[in-house]
């Protein structure tokens, strides 16, 4: 049987739509047949059409949901069958809620999902058929720890979370009537279980949100506040405030003092009491842990609280006054050098307040898509944003001096979010502190923090006047960030450079059109590129071992190849030619650096960015070093090393390796078919990479601008300054691919035929 050399080829948009329609129709037929046969074994493969970037019409997805609901009902008593159907339903409902043609809530054409079958199924399995009353008497044996039960409750809870958007009218009142009898703290297990189930099942649409909030707030106050307990109720309060702000926000005002006091106890800041409450010591039963959403209850509490606080901001709300009081009280306890306990929680509070505020501003401006339209009675103003920045920015900048990388990352994200809502107040302060922090070699943690901040705020910095020149200075200063003795700083430097390169094309002034602006930064790019290449190779030359377990090796594995793809892909022809010549000279020199894997990544990127020139400079000398005159080199280390480099040259070469085909096949024949394993192993890797380069499908380039902004020579069309800081939105992206040519496929077939027979003979 012949070997199929073709991989999955890219698909056109129209073909994608047709394939999505076909798979959705097949899923509908499959579920109809399952109903007739009574088996749910093949339910999950039917939702494979959801993996495509194609959304079927809401009407068809609704029909699929109805079929799956019937399958779910027919699987009654079969734990695995119910779990499969519930998981499939959760996936389909997740896509259905995002359909643009889905009818609004309350419309007669909108599908409804009954809540009682989900609720009854969950309890039946967890109580083994017993009721609430018999379970309280000890007649039920809860299933805990078995894989079937775990898969069951995970699928059912995910199904309930998606289905509550489609519960029928009046479901909220019915659910409250069902669970209200168990809101009694005398039976702790039932009390906690009922509260957790309410957080999963309570829908957003209800008749009297204010009355429901008042009742649930009373239940929240019944027991001591533990992290899991607060998480359950703050999740409910946050959802109610987001989806019913006009009714819930006024009703929430009397509860705000107790909520903020509970937040202080959750964070761990002393509240002035002689015996402060320790919510982390109020344990949550282990057999009910599956009902709590998330893994870290303390962090999730802060996350839910920040969301609730931001969506209750308004002129008639006391939220901002309480938040200001809380921050003024906690400021003395906030120290950047104390990364543990309440300091990290306070930093998370600052970061999440900024993030949720920026999200709300984006939703109100129509920049973010949401599942449900925002129905807030009050729209945030510029004065609100300035007040937020004046309150949060000083504390956020204080955390900039931290030595902890997580703290620095959260600080960078918080400053970015504040800059997005009020750039005039934030960006100038960032510009004042950025370059001095990077230049401060005596405080390396500030250097790392400034690098992370530049990576996060690159797009904002490029929009301000003089931002491009400042980015040029940052590029020159951060060459030293590639540091052999500091793997963490090296990783953040590569990430920062990739963030900048995704928005700044590297153009030589000689390549730009006559009418284009030529910032001063461009005149130092050649020197910077040479310094960066030499710096990376000097690190690779001096690292004694990059084996598994060494942190620098992990850093380079994660970032080096992606950095050089962006670095070389964004260059103009003159710069790229210079860089490729520099790389080729370092690779083909007489000394063999120890880090062959990472040097190979650089070679791979050079060939991908400029295949013809890179192969012309690399392939002939590498072939001569492996097999000069058709015989293997006498030096074993050189043969192994340069064979490895040849493999990286061919990995993404495609049709451009055709002029060297005869020479390559001769080298492969010498190495891959060698009797000694140390040679044949590298030769077989070379053969695999050669075949992969001939038949693989790859993106055409990694440039930040659309193809229309580049001419045939790879030079920007239009003004250079206008092209910096531009990112294509996903809707405008048109990704081209390098498809295997008929000549590539013919050569691959010939190579397989040529080397398969000797290989089989060796096996025999």
UniProtKB/TrEMBL annotation:
Gene Ontology BP term (one): proteasomal ubiquitin-independent protein catabolic process
Signal peptide range: none
Name of the protein in question: Proteasome activator Blm10 middle HEAT repeats region domain-containing protein
GO cellular component: cytosol; nucleus
Domain annotation Proteasome activator Blm10 middle HEAT repeats region: ranges: 324-508, 524-760
Organism: Hemiselmis andersenii
GO molecular function: peptidase activator activity; proteasome binding
InterPro entries according to UniProt: ARM-type_fold, Blm10_mid, PSME4
């Amino acid at each position: 049987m012949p070997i199929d050399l073709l991989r999955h080829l890219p698909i056109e948009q129209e073909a994608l739509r047709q394939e999505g329609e076909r798979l959705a129709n097949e899923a509908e037929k499959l579920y109809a047949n399952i109903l007739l046969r009574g088996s749910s074994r093949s339910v999950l493969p039917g939702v494979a059409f959801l993996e495509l970037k194609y959304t079927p019409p809401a009407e068809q997805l609704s029909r699929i949901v109805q079929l799956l609901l019937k399958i779910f009902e027919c699987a009654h008593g079969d734990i695995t069958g119910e779990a499969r159907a519930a998981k499939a339903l959760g996936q389909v409902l997740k896509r259905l809620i995002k359909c643009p043609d889905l009818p609004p809530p309350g419309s007669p054409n909108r599908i409804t999902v009954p809540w009682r079958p989900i609720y009854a199924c969950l309890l039946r399995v967890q109580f083994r058929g017993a009721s609430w009353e018999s379970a309280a008497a000890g007649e039920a044996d809860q299933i805990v720890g078995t894989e079937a039960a775990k898969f069951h409750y995970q699928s059912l809870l995910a199904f309930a979370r998606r289905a509550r958007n489609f519960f029928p009218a009046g479901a909220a009142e019915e659910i409250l009537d069902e669970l209200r009898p168990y809101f009694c703290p005398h039976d702790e297990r039932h009390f906690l279980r009922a509260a957790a189930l309410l957080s999963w099942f309570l829908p957003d649409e209800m008749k009297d949100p204010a009355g429901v909030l008042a009742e649930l707030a009373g239940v929240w106050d019944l027991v001591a506040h533990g992290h899991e307990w607060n998480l359950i109720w703050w999740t409910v309060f946050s959802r109610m405030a987001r989806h019913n702000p006009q009714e819930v926000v006024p009703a929430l005002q009397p509860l705000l003092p107790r909520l903020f006091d509970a937040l202080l106890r959750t964070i761990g800041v002393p509240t002035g009491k002689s015996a402060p409450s320790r919510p982390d010591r109020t344990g949550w039963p282990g057999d009910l842990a599956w009902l709590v959403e998330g893994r870290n209850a303390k962090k999730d509490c802060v996350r839910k609280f920040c969301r609730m606080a931001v969506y209750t901001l308004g002129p008639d709300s006391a939220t901002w006054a309480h938040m200001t009081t809380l921050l003024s009280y906690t400021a003395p306890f906030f120290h950047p050098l104390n990364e543990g306990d309440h300091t990290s929680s306070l930093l998370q509070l600052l970061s999440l307040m900024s993030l949720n505020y920026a999200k709300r501003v984006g939703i109100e401006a129509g920049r973010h898509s949401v599942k449900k339209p925002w129905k807030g009675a009050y729209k945030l103003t510029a004065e609100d944003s300035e007040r937020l920045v004046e309150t949060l920015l000083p504390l956020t900048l204080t955390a900039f001096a931290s030595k902890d990388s997580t703290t620095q990352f959260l600080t960078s994200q918080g400053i970015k979010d504040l800059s997005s809502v009020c750039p005039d107040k934030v960006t100038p302060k960032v510009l004042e502190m950025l370059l001095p922090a990077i230049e401060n070699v005596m405080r390396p943690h500030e250097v790392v923090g400034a690098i992370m901040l530049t990576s996060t705020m690159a797009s904002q910095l490029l929009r301000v006047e003089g931002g491009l020149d400042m980015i040029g200075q940052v590029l020159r200063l951060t060459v030293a960030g590639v540091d052999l003795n500091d793997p963490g700083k090296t990783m953040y430097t590569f990430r920062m450079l990739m963030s900048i390169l995704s928005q700044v094309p590297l153009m030589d002034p000689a390549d730009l059109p006559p009418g284009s602006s030529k910032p001063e930064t461009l005149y130092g790019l050649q020197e910077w590129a040479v310094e960066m290449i030499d710096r990376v190779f000097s690190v690779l030359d001096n690292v004694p071992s990059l084996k598994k377990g060494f942190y620098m090796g992990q850093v380079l594995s994660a970032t080096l190849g992606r950095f050089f793809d962006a670095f070389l892909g964004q260059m103009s022809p003159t710069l790229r030619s210079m860089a490729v010549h520099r790389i080729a000279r370092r690779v083909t020199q007489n000394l063999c650096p120890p880090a062959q894997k990472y040097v190979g990544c650089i070679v791979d990127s050079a060939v991908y960015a400029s295949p013809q020139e890179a192969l012309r400079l690399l392939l002939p000398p590498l072939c001569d070093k492996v097999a000069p005159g058709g015989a293997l080199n006498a030096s074993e280390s050189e043969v192994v090393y340069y064979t490895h480099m040849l493999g990286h040259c061919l990995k993404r070469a495609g049709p451009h390796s055709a002029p060297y085909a005869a020479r390559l096949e001769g080298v492969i024949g010498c190495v891959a078919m060698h009797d000694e394993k140390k040679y044949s192993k590298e030769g077989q890797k070379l053969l695999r990479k050669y075949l992969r380069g001939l038949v693989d499908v790859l993106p055409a380039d990694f440039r930040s601008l659309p193809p229309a902004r580049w001419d045939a020579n790879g030079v920007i069309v239009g003004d250079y300054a206008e092209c910096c800081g531009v990112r294509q939105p996903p809707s405008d992206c048109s990704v081209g691919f390098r498809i295997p040519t008929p000549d590539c496929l013919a050569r691959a077939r010939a190579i397989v035929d040529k080397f398969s027979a000797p290989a089989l003979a060796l096996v025999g």
